[in-house]
Amino acid sequence: MTATLMNERDLEFMLYELFDSEALIKRNRYQDHDRQTFNEVINTAKAIAEKYFLPIRQKLDTHQPTFDGKKVTLIPELKPAIEAIIDSGISSATADYELNGMQLPPIVASVASTYLTAAGGVGLGYNMLTNANANLLEAHGSEALIEKWVKPMRSGRFMGTMAMTEPGSGSGLGDLITKAVKSDDGTYRISGNKIYISGGDHNLSENIVHLVLARIQGAPKGVKGISLFVVPKFLVNDDGTLGADNEVALAGLFHKMGGRAQTSTALSFGEKKGSIGYLVGEENQGLKYMFHMMNEARIMVGTSGATLAVAGYQYSVDYAKNRPQGRLPSCKDPLSPMVNIIEHADVRRMLLAQKAYAEGALSLVLYGSQLSDDEKTATTEEARAHAHVLLNFLTPIIKTWPSEYGTKANDLAIQVLGGHGYINEHPVELFYRDNRLNPIHEGTTGIQSLDLLTRKVPMNKMAGYSATLSEIYKTIEQAKQYSNLTAFSAQLSDALETLKQTTDVVLTAMQATNIDLALANSVKYLELFGHVIIAWLWLKQGVVASEALRKQPHQADEDFYNGKLQALQYFYRFELPEIALWSNILRTSDSTTYDMKVAWF
Ligand SMILES: Cc1cc2nc3c(=O)[nH]c(=O)nc-3n(C[C@H](O)[C@H](O)[C@H](O)COP(=O)(O)OP(=O)(O)OC[C@H]3O[C@@H](n4cnc5c(N)ncnc54)[C@H](O)[C@@H]3O)c2cc1C
Asked: Which residue's CA is the closest to the ligand 1 atom numbered 17?
């Protein structure tokens, strides 16, 4: 069975109705574009997804990359698929024209990427990491670094990685021990071991540009002593040709439950003389620069979580419309025809939950993409600063909510298919396995929740927190103009009160009493805030849908908008009320988990 990869109508809704992306063409940077060029890029991504990735999606999963001690082998069909992305320009779509880019708005590039993610799992990850690596160097690297490393990455000759994690340093990067020693010529000798490095070795490009976090000899302990280096697999001569091997050895590949198209590598740097590394920016500022890439990667992770949720939802809807099984409780006649399972209310419950999670999450990540654009290209200084504050604040939620609830959506997609969902003839189990990584990498859910409470909420006198709440209040006011939305806007107002009271109590507890206890339930705070944000974005979608329905659209659109309103109702009736329980746990500083002694497990 083949199903539509993404819901084209919904992508159009998100892009042009919810976020009014067409208005972006008024900005100087996008003056060469219009709705037609946006759609052409999206359609190109869809065509590449269908032609190159969809036919090999299962093979990429069942034929994991192998390493014979000398070289990595990937299935041969992957290279032309990746090249098709590079040749189309989509891999550098948002970059400047001078750097081989198309100067496309990030929100349009994100929509285009959904087709590729849905069709090929993480095959696209090679390009995305390369792009994020190049973006970091453009922002923080010298002209020389940009010339030598960014240009070949933008043209597709080289690919890039992000090399942070070590065997003894995962969530806690402050403990990393990879060493950097300065040479007389101003370069550094890097030595140490990194693990889980995505795209750390492969045969898809001429060279691999690793961005490596390391500690310069004598640097302070902890995060203040971390520097960032470009460490290529092969050195590059002044004329751009490849030079000597740079002692970046592949120690082995990891075999994973999902995301198998992308190599996960253990890398050993500089076992003999040390790999040559080029410092990015200033010494000991490495983590700050790396956050440029991490923040971008966090939005990519959220986008992957949301996209896989949509893909599973789409697939299970199509399946449920075509799978005859059983009869309704009201039908007692065994000779009557079976109904398609979508006729069973419980199956519609599972589909509606997926729709609420998936399209809620998608609206959040696209909002994040738009903010990442606004902070650079909005027309006033004030608007740019406002977008920056919002994005900085919301990043842990943009990363986490779609990852957690996207995976839950995929779990439900499996359930809709029953036994057929558990076998690999249908892709929903693959979506689940691929998505399961998203709550783990780029900072686990637990780490994101600590970041939200200890840094993002209190930051700059709670500027991000207050800016977010103001945006929500604006939508509540708008929604009051629609009689079908008044109950929801009142419920969201109440939810904001719950959020504010909870925040006050937790922040006070963090200062006044035992901070370990005050933060023990931080994940519940992130979940609570995430639910409020998703409820807000559903209300925003409800406003657009209600307005469109007033204009009496044709039948297909009427069905589409009514579907939006029903998913909104589902989220407000079945999901949002959960925050009362989480708030209670937080406001009472519930110590159940904190008090559990190691010996009692
Ligand atoms: C497939 C895959 C791809 C990856 N790609 C990359 C990559 O390209 N580059 C790269 O550098 N890394 C990469 N990673 C590494 C990834 O970012 C780490 O796995 C992740 O940050 C968690 O680190 P860890 O695995 O060491 O787990 P740990 O840090 O050991 O965490 C284990 C558990 O303990 C919890 N925990 C840890 N510390 C705390 C704390 N202070 N408070 C509360 N809870 C805590 C965590 O939330 C988690 O639940 C990848 C990992 C995987 C699996």
From this structure: 441
